[in-house]
Amino acid sequence: MTLPGLPPPKPIPLKDRSALVFVERARVDVLDGAFVAINADGTRTHIPIGGLACLMLEPGARISHAAVSLAARAGTLVTWIGEAGVRLYSAGQPGGARSDRLLWQAQLALDPAARLRVVRKMYSVRFGTEAPSRRSIEQLRGIEGQRVRQTYKLLGQRYHVAWKRRRYDPRDWSSADTANRCLSAATACLHGLSEAAVLAAGYAPAIGFLHTGKPRSFVYDIADLWKLETVVPEAFRIAGRAEKGRLDMPIERAVRLACRDSFRRTKLLKRIIPSIDEVLSAGELPRPEPPAEAMGPAFDEEQTGDDGHRG
Fold this sequence. Notes:
Blueprint: E1 18-23, E2 27-31, E3 34-38, E4 44-46, E5 52-57, E6 62-63, H1 65-74, E7 77-81, E8 88-92, H2 99-110, H3 112-127, H4 137-158, H5 178-200, H6 217-227, H7 231-243, H8 251-266, H9 268-281
Parallel strand pairs: 1-5, 2-6, 5-7
Antiparallel strand pairs: 2-3, 3-4, 7-8
Helix pairs in contact: 2-3, 3-6, 3-9, 5-6, 5-7, 5-8, 5-9, 7-8
């Protein structure tokens, strides 16, 4: 409720938010005006929903209509995930997609030359070097995969992890080895944060450039820009500690805490939306002007206001 004479509350820009909060085996609701997780014994844990980029609900969590509505008005993405985040079942969009940005994204993806320029820019952002010349998108995808596999091998050696290859079964979480479980949990954190940024900025998760044909292709594109810098080293570090028996908590929780600290240390939330615009601008197609009646993004890096509230 807004008091007379006071301006409506403004959503917090993504760059000033905390990254993620996971909730499992609890009921999420709004009680006494507060967004809370209620345990089986009736105790409450307050969740500062307006200060989060993404709320991830694991099996055993239930959420009320009031809680979903408040999260939407605050511009916070709500996702329903499987155990340790290996599967993402659904996501509640924190605001409407911007038609001008969505059309620009689609134009870039449909123009072969522009799409290749975007993919080459993604390569340079990810690896800090220019992409090899005269290579197709399929060839660049193969080169990237080779570099990633080599990075996994080197990180395994650094942290004394018995690394073989990337392999896990989403239907049988416990069948994967420690390193693969750590990597899956870590990438789930990054994918949730990346989807929150993509939606908040007004783009479409399904319209990808390097990844295609999946509901979150663009989310994977953006997450890959930061994966080797942020969550992958943390996953191998935690795996190394786990294999030496040096963890006093489940490996999934240890990975989440490490990813949280990595996001803060690298200031990822301040960089991710400007980087989306940077890689798309490399396509060299003009960005359409938004219609006068267009609704703004859920929250923007430069300006916030009523457009962030969808209630």
